[in-house]
Amino acid sequence: MSWLKFLRRQRSDAELQDELEVFLAEETADNVARGMSLGEARRQARVKLGNTQKVRESLWAQNSPLALTKFGHDVKYALRTLSRTPGFSLIAIAVMALCIGAATSLFTIMRSVLLRPLPFRDPGRLVVVYEHFRGRLAGTGDFSYNPVAPADFYDWRSKTNGFEDMAVIRRTGYNLTGERGELPEAVRAAACSWNLFQLLGVQPTLGRAFAESEDQPGSTVVMLTWNVFQRRFAGDAGIVGRQIHLNSKPFTVVGVLPSWFTYPDASIQLWVPYRADTTLEFLQHHDYHHSQAIARLRPGVSLASALAQVGALQYQLHLQYPRDPVAEDVVSRSLNEDLSGNVKKPLNIMLYAVGCMLLIGCLNVANLLVARGAARQKEVAIRSALGAQRTTLIREQMTESVLICAVGGLSGILLSVVATKLIAQRWKALPTAQSIHIDGIVIGFACVLMFVAALVAGLLPALSTTGKTMMKALQTSVRTGSSNVSRTALRKSLLTVEIGITVVLLVAAGLLLKSFMKLHSADVGCVTENTLTLQYSLPQKKYDTPEKVDAFNETLLQRVRNMPGVRSAALGNTVPGAGYWGDFVFTVKEHPPLKSEEDLPSALSRWADPGYFSALGIPLVSGRFFTNDERGARSYKVIVNRQLVRQYFPGEDPIGKHLRVPAHALAGAPGEFDYEIVGVVGDTLYQVGKEPKATMYFPILDGSLRGGMLAVHTASEPLQFSVPVQKQIAELDPELPVSDVLTLDQVIGKSLINARLSATLVLAFAILSLLLASVGLYGVLSYLTTQRTTELGIRMALGAQRDQLLQLMLIDGLRPALFGLGLGLALSIAATRIFQSMLFGTKPLDPVVLSGVIATLLTVAILACLAPAWRASRLDPMQALRTD
Amino acid sequence: MRKKGETQSEMLKGTLDMMILRTLVGGDAHGHTIAKVIEHTSEDLLEVEQGSLYPALHRLEDRKWVSSYWGASENNRKAKFYRLTAEGRKQLVRETSRWRQMTRAIGLVMGEEGGAQ
């Protein structure tokens, strides 16, 4: 009702004016009838009507709700005072915009990654189950969550009942070739047991999910993800039921997954049944650890008891296969945690950093407001003398800080729209990067943040300026010098806290940066510059014998090595720095048999062509490289790295010894093979930031491997060679797609993106905070200088030298900086514990970083203090004494 | 609301509302007529200030005691006419009885026989 009145008061006012017009006309007519002249009649009518403005105003007020009017007044007043000092207002708004923008962006990402439940049915009951080695391997991070072997999974599923159902997935890849001459494409795919989609509660958008009968070796059904469905098949629903060619084999499309389904990540393009591309023999292995088991907890069963059941079964399996790497135990984590596990820590660190920055921003605005409050002290005193209530005065000041925070917050939200997009694009490890966007809840969060910030920033100064009794404030004058001790103390302590938090941020940023630089400059153990890498995978159908595979590989190597500008070329299954890829357990034939409680030795498995090591610059320590005729039956040779020698042949000459490797991926290999060690090469890192691992290299010319990674060492910019090298491949086989064409530096850099991003972001927050803190320092000292103008004038008149004054003011300004520094260093010691595990080759109390932080902070503090201090020392004493 | 220049108290403001309602019992009227009727009926003892009249009219309209429409005045001018609503009539009855009690009470205190009436 009153709102309606309020909204219609414009019209109501217009009506009133008409009414008053009528009144005037009627009264004039009456007066004329009484015998007055027209002029006199009109005059008398006006006299009777009185002040029309007053009538209008009173009706206007009657139509405006009281609280709203007051609020309007406050806003108007705040706007006026703020626009009187545009510099202050702009700085304060910019500070708030930056802080709220950063916090909103980070909250958006956190929410999408950590807080938003997966869109699966009842996601709280979904867990991912891993094998868990209790022995020596357990301590090393890579083995605490070990992938599951297929035979283990099938035993779990059939022999335990704590889980409603269990599904298994395994990553794989296919060459997708077109029927009508489209370009071939290497796509990442996943294989899943038929029940996965049912277990997750996902309905295909088109068609259906896999049937149990289709989850068999040799099965040729496939489901498309929305991405490939749109991209490659133009969203044509007719594709369901038709065939597509994977590795030159026809597969029937049975369904298309919904667009939101990007599990386990967005790179997966196709799904096939788990057993489709396997053999029955493969499925019986308890030691092929490359799958992931997803389980749905049965209602009313605790996770612990369900897991204990699986764990007990796994221990049985371990005892049953004592010579194989079969884990003794199992562990689990929730599906959500499994997806976000790797980014949780850096996100948390950044959240702390943003929180610190927001606090600094609030303190800064509070500090600026206290300074303004001091300048308006007289005004406030006079107004309270005239009867203004304290609540009114506080409300006015709060309105100012609310306005600053509201405008800052709105600009912050706009800022964060851009920033969020940028971060989500850069940060490849984020599991749900596609679904990160700003929505109502995020904006709500930003608004809450805004008002909390306004409260924090506004209440303290508002209380401090209005708290004084009016008389005291009126009596106070600058001349007495001592008036503002308490307020100055307040500003200084605000500043000390601000600087302390800045130091914590600086220390964190310094440590992360140093750790990143360590990572970046880490020696991978091979040539990394001017090296182009690419991957391909030869389809089984076309390359069905080892001879055909070898022929392709050798011809390609020969052709590439003959290209002008190519120094050398290497072919292996992978290159250093590109990740873990895989490992084998082995025993040494010449060593006594292991005792039963001893762990099996294990080493990374790599394949290499004879020219691999010299092309990549991996040094030969002893023995020799592979030769060209070590292939087929003569290929049971192995080259090991120094780490393997250190670990398993201490004080022995490994050359000529034999590694006995249980049946591995070698097609159709029965039982075990003895590989003769022919050479020892230098260590390389499989991933930057990880310790080198024992590695064994097998000759790639054994023909067992269809996938290869080609590394081309070039004389000039390697990316220039990407098209010519791909042309060579296309000439050999036009249907063979190539993927992941990257320089070796990029391959290694990919694993550092996260470290780089968290270091850069925290550094950006730290620099902003440093800037804010120095603005605060400058502000406080400038204010102190004007406060003490008279005092300084007296000192000068009494003979103080200018440099003495400079010193005095500098020390005064630097004191809070020094206190803040001490506070910050103490806090840092506690804070660095949080992210100790993220640091590589850097101690939490790194002296270089700490001294760097101290030096930076002191320099900035001195610079911030210098200008006001210098101004103070240049005062004209006469002028200063006259100032009031 | 008494003679010009004297301040109005809250009670008098209430009586203006009541008098407006009473005036409208005689038929719909616009602001000028209402003021004139009150003045004439009170033998020119009361003079209605426009500063009170119009806010009062709008207030009564807000409370739904009167409704308004635009019509032609006696002199054929377009004027805003006010009409007493059923709710307004009830309100008038209430106000009138309260007023009677009040004046009687004051009259008793002032020593007038039987109150003011």
Strand order of the largest sheet of chain B: 1-3-2
For CATH, the homologous superfamily of the domain at 10-85 in chain B is named as: Winged helix-like DNA-binding domain superfamily/Winged helix DNA-binding domain
Percentage of residues in DSSP E strands of chain A: 15-25%
Taking all Cα atoms into account, the compactness measure Rg of chain B is 15 Å
Give me the number of helical elements of chain A.
27
Note down, in words, how this protein is organized.
The complex is a heterodimer of chains A (884) and B (117). Chain A folds into 4 domains: 63 residues, no CATH class; 180 residues, no CATH class; 308 residues, no CATH class; 197 residues, no CATH class. Chain A is built from 27 helices and 22 strands. In chain A, strands 13, 14, 15, 16, 17, 18, 19 and 20 form an 8-stranded mixed beta sheet that branches. In chain A, helix 5 packs across helix 14 and helix 23 packs antiparallel against helix 25. With 117 residues, chain B is of the alpha+beta class. Chain B has a domain of 76 residues: Orthogonal Bundle (Arc Repressor Mutant, subunit A), CATH 1.10.10.10. Helices cover 55% and strands 14% of the residues of chain B. Chain B is built from 4 helices and 3 strands, in the order αβααββα. In chain B, a hairpin with a 5-residue loop joins strand 2 and strand 3. Chains A and B meet through helix 2 and helix 4 of A and helix 2, helix 3 and strand 3 of B.
Q: Which helices and strands, and how do they pair?
A:
The complex is a heterodimer of chains A (884) and B (117).
Chain A lengths: L1 H6 L1 H25 L4 H12 L2 H12 L2 H19 L1 H30 L10 E7 L17 H10 L3 E15 L7 E8 L3 H5 L5 E2 L13 E4 L1 H6 L11 E4 L2 E8 L11 E6 L6 H4 L7 E7 L5 H18 L8 E6 H41 L1 H9 L4 H37 L13 H27 L3 H6 L9 H36 L10 E7 L8 H16 L4 E7 L10 E3 L1 E2 L13 E7 L3 H5 L3 E4 L13 E5 H7 L9 E5 L9 E10 L13 E5 L7 E8 L7 H11 L5 E6 H7 L2 H35 L1 H9 L4 H31 L14 H27 L3 H6 L2
Parallel strand pairs in A: 3-8, 5-7, 15-20, 17-19
Antiparallel strand pairs in A: 1-9, 1-10, 2-3, 2-6, 2-9, 4-7, 5-8, 6-7, 11-21, 11-22, 12-21, 13-15, 14-18, 16-19, 17-20, 18-19
Helix pairs in contact in A: 2-3, 2-4, 5-14, 6-12, 6-14, 6-15, 7-11, 12-15, 12-17, 12-23, 14-15, 17-23, 17-25, 17-26, 18-21, 23-25, 23-26, 25-26
Chain B lengths: L9 H16 L3 E2 H11 L8 H13 L3 E7 L5 E7 L1 H24 L8
Antiparallel strand pairs in B: 1-3, 2-3
Helix pairs in contact in B: 1-2, 1-3, 1-4
